[in-house]
Structure formats: structure tokens, C-alpha cells
Amino acid sequence: MLQTPVNFTPKDYKSEVKPTWCPGCGDFGVLNATYRGLAGLKMSPDQTVVVSGIGCSSRFPHFMKTFGFHSVHGRALPVAQGLKMARPDLTVVAVGGDGDFFSIGVGHFVHAALRNIDITVVVMDNETYGLTKGQTSPTSPHGHVSKSTPYGLLASTFNPIATALTLNVSFVARGYSAKPKELAALIEQGMTHHGFSFIHALSPCPTFYNTFDAWDASVTPIPTDHDSHDRIRALTLAMDAEKQYMGIFYQEDRPTMDQSAHQLSQQAKEFDIEKYMARYS
Amino acid sequence: MMNEITIRIGGESGEGTISGGDIVALAAARWGYHVYTFRTFPAEILGGPCMFQVRIGDQPIKSMGDYADVLICLNKEAYDRNISDLRHGGVLVYDPADFTPDAGDFIAYAAPFNELARKEVQLFQTKNMVMLGVISGLFGPPLEAIIQVVESKLSKSRKSNPILMEKNMLALQIAKKYVTEKLSKRDPFELGPVEKANRVVLNGNQAVVAGALAAKCGYFAGYPITPASDIMEGLAKELPQVGGTFLQAEDEIAALASVLGASFGGVRAMTATSGPGFSLMTELIGYASMAEIPAVIVDAQRAGPSTGMPTKMEQSDLSFALNASHGDTPRMIVAPADVADCYSLIITAFNMAERYQMPVIFLTDQSLTARVESVEMSAFQPMEIEERLQFSANGAGANGNSSNGYAEAAHTYSRFAYTASGISPISTPGSGAMAYTATGLEHDEQGHPDYEPEDHTAMMEKRFRKLDTAAEELPKPQRYGDEDATIGIIGWGSTEGTIQEAVDRARAKGYKVAALHPKILSPLPDRTIRDFIRSVKTVIVPECNYSGQLANLLGAKYGLQAIRVNKFGGIPFTAGEILRAIEEVS
Lengths: 281, 586
Fold this sequence. Notes:
- The complex is a heterodimer.
- By secondary structure, chain A is α/β, with parallel strands linked by helices.
- Chain A has a single domain (18-280), classed as Rossmann fold (3-Layer(aba) Sandwich), CATH 3.40.50.970.
- Helices cover 32% and strands 17% of the residues of chain A.
- Chain A contains ten helices and ten strands.
- Chain A has helices at 26-40, 76-86, 98-104, 106-115, 160-166, 180-192, 212-218, 231-238, 257-264, 273-277, and strands spanning 48-52, 67-70, 91-97, 120-125, 128-129, 135-136, 171-176, 197-202, 219-221, 244-251.
- The longest helix of chain A has 15 residues, at 26-40.
- Chain A is globular.
- The relative contact order of chain A is 0.14.
- The model of chain A has no long low-confidence stretch (mean pLDDT 96).
- Chain B is an alpha/beta fold.
- In chain B, the strands form four sheets. In chain B, strands 9-8-10-11-13-12-19 form a seven-stranded mixed beta sheet, sandwiched between helices.
- In chain B, helix 10 (252-264) packs parallel to helix 12.
- Chain B is globular, with a radius of gyration of 26 Å.
- Chain B starts with a strand and ends with a helix.
- At the A-B interface, strand 1, strand 2, helix 2, helix 4 and helix 9 of A face strand 7, helix 8, strand 9, helix 10 and helix 12 of B.
């Protein structure tokens, strides 16, 4: 067996593939925060899998030296859950964008929340479709003018944190790519959390919808007196019209489905076809 | 005494028609007979006409039978729907309170099912037990065999409802007594004593579950859909017993996505669905092919298009299975023909998925999922398990290099290395494993995104090369029938037994006929099929679909102008129908 280093630095997670992102893309901050978070927890790259869907941010696994699973649009969550169910010994992180997680794949988000499988999810939200060059997304604000909404967005806006809270996601946090140190800490805490952890990472797209200035103004540390076990209070913070709170909204320890499923097979025996077929004789 | 009887029961869904039929089949099989069942039922839980047919014989049975020898009608509608399928000189058993049959070329027995249940047993629910007692009394199997099955089937409810159990037994005895005292047997249909045998009695879906377990399936995810749900339910119960895990997914997309996740983790994984769910899975089938992730996908075909007829049989997903997903996408297709195949070929399908790192589609159909057959226990043996070719940094893989450090080895590991067979060693997450990223993007040997024309060309050829390798390595179908046949029949899937029975009957009439039934439909055994086509004058391709999907494939691949025989009403062929086709082309 090969020796793996015991201590890791962020560089140990960085692959030789150069990110395809535009200069100034928020995703760089999230990528660096992820390197840092993994190093902070000494996660071994050979036992870590980063799963993504499709989109600018979903190129993420290629820039990691961990195992990666760059899947199809919207399906990072079921891939990650299947992997964790089958291999609970691995560290599984699912990453992607707002289109991936809150539009085409939003159905999976609901069920991942209900199952509470022990994976960490980092959604890079830029409120636009970057890879397809600037259409509106579920998190775009009402009235948003984009290539696909030339007369302004007629629908209302998806609130990721509030949705996660009402689905009783067991770890709900928000970070900001422009604050990579805080984001890295949240990713670390999310990965340490036993259960489905959701980190909403604000990650602006300077090319198609630059929200850096707006978010610099609206992003506010979560009040220091916030009790992260108070889901109703967390919901109030999540629904604040002006501020985008950064930090842990909610966390709760409860059984995870991967753990419960594996407890079912503690008495497992080698399959014996002859014995098995007796039921049909 | 006859050595073979086909009994059909027609009734209303929800009144025990199917469960009663199952009891007859199981009792006959345990007594020592071969059985083969066929059933139709509506998609609704309660109400609507349903039918159960069991063919019972002392020789192995290959098809459901052309006609019923015995028809049991539980209401007038059952009579109207089924009387035309009763053979000349057959037997009708009916309740005179329901209707009076027209005169016909059959022997009729009036048996007051309703009255006996209501007045004598004093529990109307026991009507199907009364029917079983009448069947047993008139034709066999003996009442003791029926009682044994009823007791084992109802062993759970015995405790919760001892009165029902008592009443069921009473109903059987009352019916038997009625037959002895009131009916004088005027027909030749009666099952005589038979030698005991070491057989099991189960349907296609149950055999798929057993096979998946024997294949060391460690993960299953699925979404409820008729007629595949039994596979999910079976594995939900059994997987934890052998250390596997199970997930009921939120939809079929998630089911296959999670299967690919589990398989990426090195665990043998499977999903099972039917047409509508299979349609949803197509994008991920392409992904599995591109990223070279093993997966087994059972498609229990039902009559389409769209929602179609969920409880009816059709062989109409072949064209789709061959092409499902965009782009040029190698995949493998296995089509079992009978219950024994559902066991052994699902193991083969797992082995193919692992060996060739490709999605394998397992095409059963509604008739096979529900077809109960008695099968020799010897058909259920442990089989060899093929593991995927693991890359090992210690030198086991194609380009392993043990002297380098982890980082160096990770740098040189080529997950998608070009090889002569097309098969590249794979690494699985875990301590000391060489990391790589699976992707649906075109990629270079290391798995990095790569759009260079020559690389896409080479990678495409590598992926397809695995099909050539597989075509060489996989077993070839055996010809059935005359070596010097002038008429050939090529079929696929659940029709094999029916075709073979037709071949037997045609040969007995002096026709020179042979059949070929490939069970691996991708990659096709080109040489075997070409040789077969060349060896005969005419090829008939019988299929339970409208468009002749295998015939189209054989036409495209081998220029074959086949005589197409298509049936698409939702019911399988009878051997008589295939025989007629043979006679017509002769």
C-alpha cells in the first residue's frame, strides 16, 4: 500500500487541471475554501469523492485531486446519496450551482433532506445560468432582466435557506465566496456535521450577473446570539428581505439514513442460494 | 387419465381468482408436476376482469398452451370472454346462479360456488376456496396438496384470523363433498399420481431477485412501477440480510443516478423499472456508457407507448433499449427467455457490466415477470462472479507502478487507458487508491476534459471496442431443431419456449424447422446469426410488437428480409400461432 501524507495542506487537493472559470468568478473562492476545509479536517483525497452536476461550478471535481464524479445536469444529489449509502466509509461532498440544485434537480433536494444521508452539499449560487451565458435562474430576483427574461422575470424567487429549513435539513449555513476563510470554516463544520449538511455559498458571476457590490452590502454575519437549534428563528433570519445572513442558521443531530441502513445489515450473512431457494420448493 | 391439463379460471379482480389459481399451480408442482402459468389482470387493485391459466403436465412445459382444457367461470363476463379459448371437448365449470351457458362442444358442470360459500360455509369470502375444492375434486391435484399450500400461504393470517382459516378448510371439504355427491364425472381430464421431483416454483421477478443476490448485488435503488415493483420489494427485504443497501428513490432518474454513485464506489449495483421509468433513465445510460461505470438496469417491458397497458405483455422496448440516450453510446442488452434465465442471466448481466464497464439492460417483460414456472432446483446454482479489472498501484493494473509515491502514481494513472480490449483498469475510492474524476464530457486517458478531434475519435473507438471484445468472449446461442431446416425462426425474450414448442410440433408434422434465440442482443453474435440465416431458405421473426423491432435490426445488420409475425394485443403468442406461421410459409 502506498503511503499517504498524514498532514494535508490545501495544495494537496489541487489538481493539475486549470479551472475554466472567468477571471474574478466567485467559484475560485469556493474552490479555495474547499481545499482549506478538506485540509483542516485532514481528509484523505483517496477517500473523498466530490460529486457535481453540470454548470460552470460543476466543473469543480476536475480541479480537485480527490476522486470526482462530474455527473449530468441536476443529478449530483442522487449520485452522492447512492455512493454514501453503498460506501458510508467515504467522505462525500456534492457541489454545483443554483440551476443544478434549485431548478432541474430541486426534486432531489427535497428527498435528500428527508433522508438525512451524511453528505455535505455546497451550492454555488450566482442567481444566473453562467455556462449557457446568462439566462434567468430560480434564485434570480423578481423582475430580473436577462436573455431569457427580456421583459423582466415574472416569477418569484426561490429562497434556498428558507426551503432547506422547512425541509428540516439537519445543517443549514450560508457563506460568501468573497469571505473564503469564513466559508472554509463553514465547509469544515458542514463536513463534521453528521447528516445532510447544506451550505449556500453566494458566488457571484462577474460576466453575466455581477452581484459582488450588492452582496458586499447585503451579506451580514448571523447575529452572535442566534441559537442554531431554533428553527423558527432561523427561518425568520432566512426570510429577511434586506440582509443575507452568513453563518450557521440551523443544526440538529438526528439519525442518518446511511447509518440506519447499515445497522439493518449488522446480522448479515453470506448469501446461500440453496438455502434461499427453499422458500420456493 | 391425461398427462397434461390446462386449467383456466376467469373472474373478477379482487375475488381471489389469481390467488386461487396460484394455489392450484403450486399444489400441482409440489405434488410433482411441471407447471407454467399465465395471467391477465387489470391495473386497478379491485374490479375488472382477470384470468389465470395454468398448464400442468408430467413433462417440462414450454408455453402457456393454445387452449384451455378446463374453464372455470366465476361470473358471466368470464364466460363471455373466455369460452372461445376452451378447446373442443373441453370442460366448463360454472355457477348456475350466475348464468346458463349456451350449448357447445364442451362438457359443462354446474357448481354453485356462491351458494356453497354463502349458505354452507357461511362466509362469502371463501368462494375461491369452494372453487379450489371443486377443481381438486374434478381434476386434481388431490385435496391434501391444496390444503398444504393453503396452510402455508395463510400461515401468517392464521393467528390473526383463525376463523377464516377454519372456514377456508371447511369450504374445501364442502366443495369436495359436493363434487363426490352431486357431480358425475363425464370428462377425461384428471391428473394422475406422479413422481416427486426436486423443483422450485417461482416467477420471473422472484428469479431476478435471487439472481441479483447470487450475483453479489450490493446496492439497489428503484421507484415503484408495474410490473417491476416486485424486484424492488424483494431486494428491499433481502439486501440487508446479505450486507447490501437499498434505496427507494424519488424517481427513476434518481434511482439510476444513485446506482451509478454506488457503482463508482465499487459496489455491484442495479435498478429495475418498466418503459416509462426506463425512458426517464436514458440520459444517465449515456453517462454510464461515457464514464464507463458498470450498472444493471432491468426493464420489465409492458405494452406501450406512453402509459400504455401496465399489466399487459409486449416486447416493444428493444429498439429503444438499443438506442436509448443521445450520441453513439455502447451498451449491452440481455433478454432472458424463461424463469431459469431470469436467475442465471441476471448474474451474467452483472458480470458483463463489471467486466466491460458498461450499462447492461436486462429486458424481461410483463408475462415473464408474473409467469410462475416449476424449475429444476439444479438451475439455481452459485455462478462465477466476475470482478471489474481493478487498477492497483502495486502493479496489478495495466500501468501500475509500485515504486512511485502516491502523488506520482496518481499523476500517471490513466483511468481510461487505451487498451487492445478497450477495457481499462478502474480504481475505486478507498485507502491508497488512485483518484480520478468520472465525467460525461469527452476526456483524455486520465479523464480530463478533452475535445481534440483525434482524442474523441480514439476514445469513441476504445469504448466501442469493448463490444467487439464482448462479442468474442460471450456465449453464442445454440440452434434448436433440424440441422437441415429450410425454415428458420429467430426470436428473442420470453417467446423462446413457445417457439420451441411450435418447432417440435412442426417437426412432428414433417416440416424441417430450426430456431435461434439470441439472449444477448447487444453485442449480437454476428457470425452465429449470419450462419443461421444462410442455412435456411426462409426466416420467420415472431415478435410481440407492432413494428418488428428484432426484424428491423436483423434487416439493418444482415440484410435479412424476414417473414414478420407480429402480435401486439398485450398477450403472448401461443405455440399454435407460431405453428400456423410455419405452415403458411411452407
